[in-house]
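Tutorial sheet, problem 5. The two components below are modelled jointly, 249 residues in total.
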Amino acid sequence: MGIFDKLFHKPQSEHPVITAPVAGTAVSLQEVNDPTFSQEILGKGIAIRPTEGQIVAPCDGKVDMMFDTGHAVSLVSTNGMEILIHVGLETVQLKGKHYTTHAKTGDTVKQGQPLISFDREAIAAEGYDLITPIVLCNSDRFPILQAHLGAVSAGDPLLTIDA
Amino acid sequence: MKTITHVIQDPLGLHARPAGLLAKAAAACGDCTVNLTFKDRTVDAKRIMGLMKLGAKQGDTLTITCEGENEDAAAASMESFLKENL
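Model answer (structure tokens):
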């Protein structure tokens, strides 16, 4: 019951929250068909099967790196969380096709601000899995208290952090 | 301080998976400081996001320095990690 003890010791509203960067179904990272993510090599996190084609900032912070291919973006939140959003698996191979970026490396962003839009149908039609892992690369410093699984809209609470 | 160099063999370069594994290997060096230099940038090899940001590609040369406790062992383990994984 460790998780609940912690929740009750500190009101949940005081914990940092990473919100959903895209609408869809949130699932455990273990369901991602890529060992880099499912084995948590990049850190702990969650994944979303997107039902829309836009990625928004999951928190206030700074774009640490917008990949020029638009298939991934990393952010550092105002309180130091390092978050990687990877839109689809192996999608680096699309070399930017079907992705449009709306922010660049170094930009300061607000939670909910559009970062990337992508053509779901076209990417799926090329045979790619669109599941989008959201990984906390420094989850050793920011343990995940609660993952909110199931249907989510962009901006809904996704991960509650123990910090 | 021990310094080793490595030329990237992986066709995809220092992408997510090797960066994650490299950060884990560096973290396993404990209190020894492990830095990685590519071109004019030096990053903490224990931080995944710093490594991915370098954008190092196949054929690029990485320089790794190990400094501090057990630096010889750290350099040896980093060298064998790089040979096997990158």
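Marking note: Residues 39 and 67 of chain B are 20 Å apart (CA to CA). Full credit if you identified this.
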